[in-house]
Design brief:
single chain; disordered C terminus
Length: 321
C-alpha cells in the first residue's frame, strides 16, 4: 500500500473512531438517564433488539447480505460477546451510582490492563517506562476511587471490572486476527446481548430482590415494567447509537493502524464531562481532575510507545458495545 493510500485509510479510520465515540457517549448518557426508572437488562434487551433490526435492515445488505453471519470462529465470537455484555453491564451499573466523567475516566484504565494481559497471556515484553506508565495510571484510579476513605463506594470498582473484561476481549480478538467483517462481529455482539438480557430478565426481572436503595443494585434488580411514551425516543437512540457505534469502531480499526486510531477514543472524556455538566449538573471534583489527567496521560503514553515500537496495542475490533 502506498503512503498516500495509508494516509487516506488512517484518515477514514480516525473519522470512524470519532463517530463511534460520539455513539458510545450518547449510550452512556442515555443509560444513566434511564437508570433510576427501569431495569438494566430490560433497557439492554430493547436497545439490542432495535440495534439488531437496524443491523439486518441497513448494515447487512450493504455488507453482503445474510451470508456475513457465517463464521468458522463461533466460539471466539461468543466469548467476545460475553466479555462485551458483562463489560457493558459493569460500566452501566457504575454509571448509575457515579458521576459520568468519573466512571468513564476509570474505564480508560483498559489500555493499562491490556498491556498487563499481553505480558501474561501473549508473552509480550514490557519495558520499565511502560510499567511506570501503568503505575501512574493506577495511581490516577486510586485518586478517583479513594479506597480507604469515607468517600469510597463499591460501585466505583464496577468500571474497573468493565475495563478488565474489555481487556480480555482485546486479547481474544488478537488471537482471532482480522478474518471477520465488522458486520459479522456486530451481529454476534448484538445476539449475545439479546440472549444475556433475556436470561437476566427471567432470573431477576420479577423484582423480588430489589429494595436495597443503592442505585447500582436497584438498576440491576428492579422489576421490568411498562415503558413511558417519553422514554421510547431515548431507547431508540440507544439502539441506533449502540449498533452503529460497534460497527464504526470495528471499521476504524480495520481501516487504520491501531496506534493511530486509539487516541481518538479519548475524546469520550471531554464529552463525558460535558454531559455531566449539561445533563446531570455535576462537575468532576478537584481531586478527580488529577486522577483523570493521570489515567488519560498514562494511556496515551502507552499508545504512543506502541506506535514507536511498531506494535499494536488494540485489536482489530476493540468495540466495547
Amino acid at each position: 500500500m502506498t503512503t498516500s493510500a495509508i494516509q487516506r485509510s488512517n484518515l477514514m479510520g480516525a473519522l470512524f473512531a470519532l463517530a463511534a465515540v460520539m455513539c458510545f457517549s450518547l449510550n452512556d448518557v442515555g443509560i444513566k438517564f434511564l437508570s433510576d426508572r427501569y431495569a438494566l437488562h430490560q433497557v439492554i434487551l430493547i436497545r439490542s433488539v432495535i440495534g439488531t433490526l437496524i443491523l439486518l435492515a441497513v448494515i447487512m445488505p450493504l455488507a453482503g447480505g445474510l451470508r456475513v453471519m457465517r463464521t468458522r470462529r463461533l466460539g471466539a465470537h461468543l466469548l467476545r460477546g460475553v466479555c462485551v455484555v458483562f463489560a457493558n453491564m459493569c460500566l452501566f451499573l457504575g454509571l448509575a451510582a457515579m458521576p459520568i466523567a468519573d466512571a468513564v475516566a476509570v474505564f480508560f484504565v483498559s489500555p493499562l490492563i491490556i498491556t498487563i494481559f499481553s505480558v501474561i497471556f501473549l508473552r509480550e515484553t514490557v519495558g520499565a517506562r511502560r510499567w511506570a506508565a501503568i503505575a501512574v495510571g493506577f495511581i490516577g484510579v486510586m485518586v478517583i476511587v479513594k479506597p480507604g476513605t469515607t468517600a469510597f463506594q463499591l460501585a466505583s470498582l464496577l468500571p474497573i471490572a468493565a475495563a478488565t473484561l474489555y481487556a480480555v476481549m482485546h486479547i481474544v480478538a488478537r488471537k482471532i486476527g482480522g478474518t471477520e467483517s465488522a458486520a459479522t462481529m456486530a451481529f454476534y455482539i448484538q445476539s449475545t446481548f439479546i440472549v444475556a438480557s433475556v436470561i437476566f430478565g427471567l432470573t431477576l426481572g420479577h423484582g423480588s430482590f430489589a429494595g436495597s436503595g443503592h442505585p447500582s443494585l436497584e438498576f440491576l434488580l428492579r422489576a421490568w415494567g411498562p415503558i413511558a411514551p417519553e422514554d421510547w425516543p431515548i431507547l431508540a437512540m440507544l439502539g441506533v447509537s449502540g449498533v452503529f457505534g460497534g460497527f464504526f469502531i470495528s471499521q476504524a480499526y480495520r481501516l487504520s493502524e491501531a496506534a493511530f486510531a486509539a487516541p481518538f477514543e479519548y475524546v469520550a472524556m471531554p464529552m463525558a464531562i460535558m454531559w455531566g455538566v449539561t445533563v446531570f449538573g455535576t462537575w468532576p471534583a478537584p481531586t478527580a481532575w488529577i486522577g483523570i489527567a493521570l489515567i488519560i496521560g498514562s494511556g496515551l503514553y502507552l499508545i504512543w510507545r506502541e506506535s514507536t515500537k511498531g506494535r499494536t496495542l488494540t485489536a482489530k475490533d476493540p468495540s466495547r458495545r
